[in-house]
Amino acid sequence: MNRFALGLLLFSLASIASAKWNGDVADRCFCKLSGEVDDCSCKVETLDSLNNNQIYPRLKSLLARNYFRYFKVNLKKQCPFWSDDSRCALKDCHVDICQKDEVPIKTEKQPDNESNNQHEKNKYTMESNKGEQGGGDCTEERQLSALDTTISDEKKAEFQSWREHDESLPMFCEVDDEHSNDLEYVDLLLNPERYTGYKGLSPRRIWRSIYEENCFKPEKSVGYGPEPITEADNYDSATSSSAAFLEAMCLEKRVFYRLISGLHTSINIHLCDQYLFPAKNGFGPGTWGHNLKEFQRRFDPEKTDDHGPQRLKNLYFTYLVELRALSKAVPYLEEEVFYTGDAQEDADLKEGVKDFLAIVKNFPDHFDESQLFKVNSQEMLQLKSEFVHHFRNISRIMDCVGCDKCKLWGKLQVLGMGTALKVLFSGDSMAGDSTVNASLKSDFQLTRTEIVALFNAFGRLSSSIHALETFRALAR
Ligand SMILES: *[C@@H]1O[C@H](CO)[C@@H](O)[C@H](O)[C@H]1NC(C)=O
Ligand SMILES: *[C@@H]1O[C@H](CO)[C@@H](O)[C@H](O)[C@H]1NC(C)=O
Ligand SMILES: *[C@@H]1O[C@H](CO)[C@@H](O)[C@H](O)[C@H]1NC(C)=O
């Protein structure tokens, strides 16, 4: 053994020893991340290695390609449930309120009459007087949550050809809203999912509605009610992912809960992974980095009433479900053209996707959706339809998110998950041979937007699992 190898060995022994010493505290968040993912036979460790070594690097390069980086979305839909209550919601606040005297010219958006304005003004003052809760820097939040909608003229011309191509394909089903004038392409690479400063009552209300009004609950109380929503816990809601709570529900309801919880976890990991630290001297732009403290605040068992580790585990569950959907869609996706109008680019991308799908397909331990909705009964049909309705409703709640960037990623990830579920439960047979087959377009079809959402949503989960390595290392 040469000196270098010996050094390395000693070093790793030393780090194992020190890991033992610090292990308890450092590993607390990760204590559930070993062994089987709940309701699946697959192991967390297997997924870590599959994702970090094979899936993540490939997806990262795929998602930077033109086909995947432009997402068509309608961010102007009205929230159907309540009026926007985000503390920094007043989009032209800097014109109307903050600098009213300095801006003599009215901007084009002036629908408000005086009494409305008065109301908004009061609301704004009230919110910013709420200290930690409503205060903070709205200018910063607005900057961070604003979308960069830059799209070159050249690209716009290309989108026209994308559209012509897409419309020339036979369509058998209409995706919600596919032709609305409010649909816009957004460049996802220009608008990464990261910390935006969006916090307080508004996001809490979103998550509370999702968990309390749109998730399933055990029929009988199991001692664990939904967690109280506290002032201090600014993101949190009724995420009662404790084992007893979940075990008191049937498999299908548990699956639903875990899917949503996994998505929630993933969003929170991104926020901690790309966090904006204020500039040291208090001036100038801050710096982006990993925020271990924030991560621990959200996932440490002591700080989350023991829920954190289970939430992290649910991320793996959601990952497995979307992975399975991709695998089931392989026959379909292999025949997809991934049209962008540039023949060379399209061919390259198709190769790249094929290479990625080969890994997905070869993974032996997929989530088994055939276990769901298995019993053929009236109740089961009812449950399935509730499942679908709840999920649709959650996608509508995304229109209530009061921060454009968060809304963009929320909508994308919910659509991606919805697409995954559509793949999993399409056709007569939910299991076994895939009915998801490009030669059978009359039975099953995915639009460009759905494909882009599916890949990007899975990309988000993949990047979260990858980021856990960073936090694990930082914790030591
Ligand atoms: C002004 O706003 C008030 C309160 O929302 C409303 O009742 C009234 O009809 C509005 N007036 C005009 C001219 O739009
Ligand atoms: C949809 O979600 C909203 C907001 O949480 C809730 O008030 C409503 O009851 C839900 N509707 C259905 C049909 O579940
Ligand atoms: C797709 O369906 C066609 C027609 O039924 C069939 O011939 C083909 O083998 C299927 N392809 C795959 C990959 O299952």
Automatic annotation (TrEMBL):
<comment type="similarity">
    <text>Belongs to the EROs family.</text>
</comment>
<dbReference type="InterPro" id="IPR037192">
    <property type="entry name" value="ERO1-like_sf"/>
</dbReference>
<keyword id="KW-0676">Redox-active center</keyword>
<dbReference type="InterPro" id="IPR007266">
    <property type="entry name" value="Ero1"/>
</dbReference>
<keyword id="KW-0813">Transport</keyword>
<comment type="subunit">
    <text>May function both as a monomer and a homodimer.</text>
</comment>
<keyword id="KW-0274">FAD</keyword>
<feature type="region of interest" description="Disordered">
    <location>
        <begin position="106"/>
        <end position="139"/>
    </location>
</feature>
<protein>
    <submittedName>
        <fullName>ERO1-like protein alpha isoform X1</fullName>
    </submittedName>
</protein>
<keyword id="KW-0560">Oxidoreductase</keyword>
<keyword id="KW-0249">Electron transport</keyword>
<keyword id="KW-0285">Flavoprotein</keyword>
<keyword id="KW-0256">Endoplasmic reticulum</keyword>
<feature type="compositionally biased region" description="Basic and acidic residues">
    <location>
        <begin position="106"/>
        <end position="124"/>
    </location>
</feature>
<keyword id="KW-0325">Glycoprotein</keyword>
<keyword id="KW-0472">Membrane</keyword>
<dbReference type="Pfam" id="PF04137">
    <property type="entry name" value="ERO1"/>
</dbReference>
<keyword id="KW-0732">Signal</keyword>
<keyword id="KW-1015">Disulfide bond</keyword>
<feature type="signal peptide">
    <location>
        <begin position="1"/>
        <end position="19"/>
    </location>
</feature>
